[in-house]
Amino acid sequence: MFVDSHCHINFPELAENIDELLANMAQNRVTHALCVSVNLPEWPSVMALADTYPNLYASVGVHPDYEDVEEPTVAGLVELAQQARVIAIGETGLDYYRLEGDLEWQRERFRVHIRAARETGLPLIIHTRSASEDTIRILKEERADEVGGVMHCFTESWEVAQAAMELGFYISFSGIVTFKKAEELKEVARRVPLERMLIETDSPYLAPMPFRGKTNQPAWVKHVAEHIADLRGVPLTEVASATTANFFKLFSRAAQ
Asked: Which residues have CB under 8 Å from 114's CB, separation 6+?
């Protein structure tokens, strides 16, 4: 069986077909999925899914790409995280690819999430793009190793993966790893220990081969696992069982 460790099925293009999505998950042996928060106004839609469907979970956080939105506070995140179906803080992190200028607000928002994670004991969901050096630095400065988490939709180097794993973080691979030109990422997927690996769709984005360009969905996380199994020369069941066990180990509230 498989677990989609990161999706956005509260987004309109997926939420309107939720029954079909869940049926497709079951057909492809995807037993659970984590619906990840990107901002506070839309967080109730994330929680509604997690509260309605027993195999869906929620996180709480504000994505670094969301500029000019309600800023989260440590106290506010801690309060929202008391909901039983919330199993993580995030997604949070840094993105220097999409935004330019003075991004100190982004770094401060990142620190707020880490502090909330340490207060709640919940793991972090980290987004980083063109900002790996500052991401690792702030994780260290804010003692994120006390709670750990996952580097979601990983696209960085092996050296960044090593630095993250040294802080207790898992490395999660999305459909990008199946793309033909993602050679460096494929090599990282070969080298990351299975006991430190997760898989995800980041749906509705980044559909894996052979569905690239289509609206992604949690059922297709199986294709990420299949590609990683091929890269490593191991049975699919080995990747499936390891990544599923890792999900419930990291997101321990989900196992309760």
From this structure: 92, 124, 138, 139, 142, 143, 144
Does position 68 have pLDDT exceeding 90, yes or no?
Answer: no
For helices 158-166 and 183-191, the axis angle rounded to 10 degrees is 40
Question: Residue 196 is part of which domain span?
Answer: 2-255
Contact in structure between 186 and 169 (CB atoms under 8 Å) = no
Q: What is the CATH number of the domain that holds 28?
A: 3.20.20.140
Answer positive or negative: Cα dihedral of 68, 70, 73, 77.
Answer: negative
Q: Is the pTM of this model over 0.90?
A: yes
Q: How many domains does the chain have?
A: 1
What does the pLDDT average to over 238-255?
96
Query: Edge to edge, what strands does the sheet with 30-35 contain?
Result: 2-7, 30-35, 56-60, 86-95, 124-129, 149-151, 169-173, 197-199
